[in-house]
Design goal:
It is a single chain. This protein has 13 helices and 14 strands. The chain has 312 residues and is an alpha/beta fold. The strands form three sheets. Strands 3-2-4-5-7-6-12 form a seven-stranded mixed beta sheet, sandwiched between helices. A five-stranded mixed beta sheet has the order 9-11-10-13-14, sandwiched between helices. Strand 6, helix 8 and strand 7 form a beta-alpha-beta unit. The chain folds into two domains: 170 residues, Rossmann fold, CATH 3.40.50; 126 residues, Rossmann fold, CATH 3.40.50.920.
Length: 312
């Protein structure tokens, strides 16, 4: 990892601008938050293809659905709490049910929203969206992966939920990295443990990997950027090849990444999975890093769980 910190919401804004130059059918909708979601970059360059819907998120999703029926490729953006929460019914009935070509790009997800507090910290969106038929669910970890995802989902004919973060994270991948929707990325060949991570927690998992290596413990990290459809083949492979399985996410452990992995293991290769994430509670107001420490979604917690297993 390189120490170039950047939030995936920023990468989204930059990728959206480039995509707009390449495809005139791309249109962008926002709900009075374009400075925060970074869709203002697109708005400045393509004002006739940008629609600020005001503080009316449900209406924004309905409008996006309508634009999709006319052959446009709408990217609808707002904070995750408003996208998945306030607009649930419109997404379900107007986008997912008719399988319309709408890309829901939700920023400011998880407790790493920080000082905005519990009301704005969306910890349930992966759970909500992955249970919705026809919906692809993604959560990206760095600049390169996010820019790939934005362009790639524009080529898919159908609804997508892309989860983005406010907190800045390090560069993980270079521009030569190959990504594929529905396929996780394995980093390392360690057999002592596998750490499945998504979004901002991938960086934490990689830090833990390096620190454990110094102690003679070799783990692998798996970046699950596509939570639905999930990479069953890679999950089973890691379960067979490693001694311990851990998942970590900036999301509730109920219905999120850990649950999705557990479902695969239960049916295909029954084994224990230690789930790190938010335990059936709302968030709190505070600095992003402090909140990650409070909810134990850190490299320290990964190291503790791995070392405890091996009694070191």
């Amino acid at each position: 990892m390189e120490e170039i910190k950047k939030a995936t919401r920023e990468s989204y804004g930059e990728a959206l601008l480039e995509l707009g130059k390449e495809n005139e059918n791309v249109v962008v909708l926002d709900a009075d938050l374009s400075t925060a979601t970074k869709t203002n970059m697109f708005a400045k360059e393509f004002p006739n293809r940008f629609f600020d819907m005001g503080i009316a998120e449900a209406n924004m999703m309905g409008t996006a659905a309508g634009l999709a029926t006319c052959g446009k490729i709408p990217f609808a953006s707002t904070f995750a709490v408003f996208a998945a929460g306030r607009s649930y019914d419109q997404i379900r009935c107007s986008i997912a049910y008719p399988k319309l070509n709408v890309k829901i790009c939700a920023t400011h997800s998880g407790v790493t929203v920080g000082e905005d507090g519990a009301t704005h910290q969306m910890l349930e969106d992966i759970s909500i969206m992955r249970t919705m038929p026809n919906m692809i669910v993604m959560s990206t970890s760095d600049d390169a992966e996010t820019k790939w995802a934005v362009k790639e989902i524009s080529k898919i004919d159908g609804p997508v939920y892309l989860r983005l973060a406010r907190m800045k994270t390090s560069k993980i991948y270079d521009t030569n990295q190959k990504f594929e929707i529905g396929k996780g990325i394995q980093i390392g060949e360690g057999t002592d443990a596998t750490v499945f991570a998504t979004g901002v927690t991938v960086e934490k998992a990689l830090i833990a990997k390096e620190e454990l290596k110094e102690k003679g413990i070799d783990i692998r990290v798996v970046d699950i950027h596509t939570i639905k459809p999930i990479d069953k083949e890679l999950i089973i492979k890691c379960a067979r090849e490693t001694k311990k399985l851990i998942s970590i996410e900036d999301h509730s452990i109920i219905g999120g990444l850990g649950s999705a992995i557990s479902e695969v293991l239960t049916e295909e290769y029954p084994t224990k999975l230690v789930r790190l994430g938010i335990h059936d509670t709302f968030g709190k107001s505070g600095k992003a890093e402090k909140l990650m420490e409070h909810f134990r979604i850190t490299e320290k917690e990964i190291i503790y769980k791995v070392e405890k297993e091996f009694h070191i």
